[in-house]
Structures are given as structure tokens and as C-alpha cells.
Amino acid sequence: MEIYPPLSGIGGGASLAPFAPAGLDDDLFDFDKLKLVDKPENSMNSLDLPQSLKECEGYLTKLPLKPPNVDQKNPTTVVDMVNIMTNPCAAALFDKRGDTLEKEHTFANDASRSEGVPSGLYDYSTSELMKDQLSLARRKTSHIAAPLMFGHVVLPGCISFYKKDGRTYAVGEGRWLLPNPKASWCCRNVSLDQDVIAPSKTQVLIIRILKGEVGLVMEQGVEKLLDVGSHVYNSGTVSLVGKKQYANDQYFSHGRYHYLRVPRGKLAKVWAEVVKDGVRSLVPRLLGQGEHYIDSNMFKYEYGLVDESDPYIHHGSVHIIRVAKGSVAKAMHNTKPRLLGMGDHIVESTQFEFIGTESIISNLCIVHETITILRVPLGKIALAWKDNEPVFIDEPGLYEFDSPDFEFVEYKNADERLIQLGAKKIVLVHTGSVGVTYDGGILKILPNGRHIINSSNHIFHSFLSTQEKSLRLVTLSENEKFARKSTIGRGSGAPIGLSSTAIEECDLTVCETRDLVKVGLRADVFYSIEDPEKCLNKIDSEELEDLVRETAVSTLTNIVRSTTLNEIAQSKHVTAGSPDVSTVPVFEEIGDRGGNPPPSAPMRMFFDKAHDDFLSKLHDDFMSRYGVSVSNIRIESFKIMDEELSESISKHALTTAQIENEMANLEGKSLISTTEERTAAEVKNIAAEADALALKTEADASNQRKIDGAKADAEALKIAAAAKADAEAEAILAKAKAEAEAIRLRAAAEAQRAEMLSQTQLGEQESLLGLYANMVVSSNQGVEKVVYLDPSVNKESPFALGSLENLNRDLHALTQIGVAAGEGSKAPHQ
């Protein structure tokens, strides 16, 4: 087995090295450098084949045409030749004479041929043969010129025939008698202006061959070809076969004689006999342009011409294959496959078979029996079997193999996610997915990247997406699950044959609220696979979607069942946890089915609550059990399934909308009126501001003058006031000093008095009584009216009149305070 690597040292025929060349060599895909593609020989050309019959038996340079034996311009020669030909030996003598004249080139040119034989043939002074034969013929004739009005008249341009003793004789223009009783007229006044004259019941045959024609006759069973001119026979052994025109007949044959004319650019397929080393054989020939002549009974022409430019010409053992640029020809030679490259290939062999051509531009793989040529472009991978082993060829280049153990399978794009042949696999895992494989029955997860697997026990199962998916929450039966899967394959998520309303409702999750109102929620749950191995070990990947849907529907149903319709209606957002989803307002507060008024206290929005409750129940559970992250739930809208209740709410909403519309119209009108009044007021303000600005300017000027005068007066007053203030301040200071001194002296005296009074009990009581009296006086200041109160009833009132009893009690209390204070002051000294 021959295996040739790619050109320019790209690599082996079964290389799996990654291909990313910066630039490709121009010779990398050059078919001319492949060893299994035959190149034409430099000297090989279709013109080198024998395109003539020179080496063939019976080759002729021209046809052996028999020259005419009469001068068609002279009718007398026709009559003479008819009479001469009654002698059986005369024909042979004249044929011999004609051959001699032809060799002497007496009438070799076309002009003389078209006019008949030259006059030298009938020149009695030079042609002894003509003299002798004519003399002999005249002795046998029986016609004589008729006198007066007797005899038979032969018209000009005509000839008449008579018979005597079984021979046919002719007479030309004139009046003739047949004195011999054995002679009788058999055919009278036959016009010489005919191409063929063959009188009935005679042996005479006169043939006129025009220019561009050839006559075909049989003389005693021998084929003869007649040249241009008139030919006279009177033996009865000559028959006319026909006439051929060179212009109309490309090929004609007469017995062993063959004529073939091949136009320019054509080839004729013929069979001819050749003798080589004493052995005769019939060989094929392709004759080129020109006229070809041959005298052979073995010659055969296969009707139909072929173009010299045909890509394949086949005739017998001769094969001409013209392979155009960009193609390769397939053939079998001696039971071996061959590939022929660009150029002309000429093969002469009976063991050669042409299969066909194939484009090397449009075909990346050319297979011919055991020969395989692969053209691996950039970005392709060739898959093949070599010695019963899978082979991946990914390096760009040309690869050629000649082995029955090599079998090409197909090409794959290098960016395909899975390329597999037999036990060999290339798995390309994209970001956002993983590959699921089983190595000996054990689950193996393939991360992102390109993986090559060579083990037959390592089986690729599928790709598993780890990207986030959205799933519409609907409750499906088993049949509906199957129908949905089939419709998803057709590109539609809804079953066929349902109305638009049914299709819309089939996407709703129908739940009952706490107050037993059926509502339909259009919700989507978002999930992704975080731990593929844990997920696949727990559940089939095809059942994961159903598991998420059913669990999510059950959870959402429980959440709705614990919520009243009024609580759902409180939400102004149809979704929670999805900031990119637009908010859709739903109807405002409505009373519950028990007639209770809607709650007025702020409450948590239902959709936010449903979102948080949903994720808190599913996220951690799915993550720990299946390795699946339930990341979000999006509730698009909800619908009250009770049509009467829904219609009632819709009417209420419509009425509310109408009222809001009217209020908006009134608000618009009010805004217009307010704007008009504001505009008028602004106009008046602008005018008033202009007037005020003028008055202000005038007043500013007047005020400035007054200010300047006032500043002067104020400055004078300021100086006088400053002097007066200084004097008054000095007087006040002196007075204050005197008062302060008096106070100090009074305080010192009081302090001395208090010290002296404190030394006796009576002094203490007197001091306390003074304080008490001052307190009563102070408390009654500002009192204009006094209500009399019995001191015995309200002893605690500050308006009560003092009494000895009260005084005694108060003094006793004050004494106790003083004693306590005194004891407290004495304690430290003890």
C-alpha cells in the first residue's frame, strides 16, 4: 500500500494535530505534484497518431478513375464508339490506350477531364488504334446514306440504333437506309442530352459523368469508377450502379474502392488492414482532415465523425483523453486503476477503459477503485478508515492513498460539536454547556474545550446546557406533554387545532385563592444546572423540565391558595424579582367574596411575597438534591377564570376609567383657565414692574440727595452724642460704684446681724419669721381679688390669713429645718 503525505511537509496522512497555519503554501494543493496522478508525456500529441492510410494495405493516393472513351462535344465520336464496341476486343484495347494517355498526363488537369478525353484519342492521323478499330467497325455496319426522301432521318443532337446479327449499331445526324434485311431499327432519335442512355433491348450503355461526380459501374462483375466525361459501352456486360457527388457524399464505396473526406477539426473512425512482420491484422485508425482513398475489401468506416476537441475519443484500442485544467480522468489499464492529470493522454491498448472525469475544484475527495485523493481545506476534517482503524485528517493539504485498506467516509466541519467515526470521537463543548459521556458505564462530564476520545468503551451521550432556561408553568397531562414535545419540534409551543383563546388559556396555571376564586397565572420559572453530575445521577435530563414545572406549579398553587383575591389585587406589579420586565397595572382594591371592605392598612405586595416564598421553598431544595439552581420566577399576569366576576370587575374598571377621563378633562380645562389668568397677571406684572422701575430710578436719585444731607447732619449729631454719652457714662459709673459700696456694706451688716441672731434662739425665730413674711408678701403680689376661705377648712392655701396656730406650726417646722441644718453642720466637727 502506498500512502503519500501532504505536500510541503505538512504532516502524515493520518495526522490529528490541530491546524491553524498562518499562511498556506501555494504548492500545498498542487495536483501536478501528486505521485498517483499520471502526467502526459511531453512528446505525446493526438497528431502523433497515424491519421492517414499510408501504412495500410490498398492505400491509394487517388481513386483509379476510368477515363472517358468519347468526346462529349462531338456526337460523331459517340456513334463511332458504339459501333467500335461491337468488337469484344476493342474495349480492352481502348482501356489500355486510356491508361497510357493518363500516364503521359495527356488529360491530367480538371479542365480537360470536364470536357472529355483529348482529341488525340480520336485523331486519325496520330491514333493508329482508332483507325484500325474504326475501319473494322465500318465493315460490319449496314447503314448507308439514303437518297432523296427515303430512309430514316436522325435529328440533330440525337442518335438512332439498329440491330443486326444480335449486335447494336448506331447512326448519327442524317438520313439513313438499312439495305441489309438482317438489320432493323430498334430505337430512333434518342437525345444525346441525357446523363444515361440505355436503349431497351440493346446492349448499349452511354454514361455521362459531370464535373464533381464519379460513376460507379460493374464490368463483368468487376467494380469500376468512371471519371468525368462520356463513357460508351456496347458489350452487355456493364451495368450502372450509380453516380456519387463529391460535394454531397462525404463517404462512398464501390466494392473494394473507398472514398472518405474528413473536414477540418474532425476525425473519422475507420478500420484498415495492415501487415506487420508478415502478419495481417485489422487495426483502428483515426483519419484527419483531407481526402482518403483505399482499395481494400477489409476497409470499414464507422459512420459519424468526432470532434478533435472532444475530451474523450475512443476507437477500438485507440484512446485519446484530453484532461482540462482543474480536472482528473479516471481509467482502468491492465486491471489497475489510473488517474490522468491535465493534458493529452494517448493510449493504444485493448486493456484500457475510460471511466470518466471529475473536477478537482468542486470535489474534495476523488475515489477511484483503490486510489483515494483527499483535499483537506482549512476548517475541514476528513474521516476515513485505515487498516480498520478510524483516522481523522485535519491538517490542510493533499493526501493520496493507493490501498484497498483505506476507505474515505466523509468530511466534517472543524467547528462541529461532535465528530465521530467508530471508537474515535472529537467532542467540542461550548461555554454554557457540558458533554455527557459514559466511560465503561460510569458517568463522565466533559467541561468546556475540545476533547479527543479514542476508547470504544467511552461513549458520548449528549450535550447538556448549563445556561439559564425559562419554563412556562402549566399543568400538563402525559398526552399533553407528548403533544407539546412534538409541537416544539415543529417550532410551535401550542397544540395544533386550538383556538386563540384556548391557546392563551393553555399557558395559564389555574389556582384557587383562599376565598375559592379560580385565577389563572401566566408565570415563568428560571433555572439552570449548576452541578451536572449530581443532576444526571439523580434524574434523567429529559425529565428535568417536567420535574421543575410540576414542582414549581405545585409550589405556586400552594402560595396562591394561602392568599385572597383582594391581596392579589393589591399588587401593581405583575412580576417580582425581574427588573427588566415592564410593570402592568391591575385592578385596585376590591371587596372579598364575603362582602368585607378592602384592607386599608399597607400590606405587602402579593407578587413580591410570592416571589420570595417561591424561591425560599425551591432554591435550596433543588440545589441540594439535584444540583439545579431555581433562580427566579416571573409572573406576567393573572386572569380571573370566573367570567361573570371578571366581567363585573371589567365594568367597574371601565366606569372608573370614564370618571378618571372626565376628571382629566376638567383638570385640563382648569389648567387652561389658570394658564390664561396667569398669563394676564404676568403681563400686568411686567407693566407694573416697568412703571415701578421708572419710579424707583427717580426716587433713588431723590433719596440719594437726602441721604447725603442726612449723613452730614448725622455726623454732627454723632459727635455731640458721643460727648454727651461720655459724660453720662462717667456719672453712671460713679453712681454704680457708690451703690455697690452701699450694698457691700449692707450685706456685711446683715451678715454680722445674722451671725449675732444665730447665737440666740429668739434670733433664729425672728429671722425665720421675716423670711416667712416676705414669702407671703411675694406670693400675694398682683392679686386683685381674694376669695375668703375658712382657714380651718383649707389650711394649705397660700391665700389663707395667717394665724398664731399656723405661725406656730410653720415656725416649728422651720426650726426643725434649722436644727437639722445645724446638726448637719456640726457633725463634721465632732
TrEMBL record:
Q: Which InterPro entries match?
A: Band_7 (IPR001107), Band_7/SPFH_dom_sf (IPR036013)
Tell me the superkingdom of the source.
Eukaryota
Start and end residues of each Band domain:
429-667
Q: Can you name this protein? A: Band 7 domain-containing protein
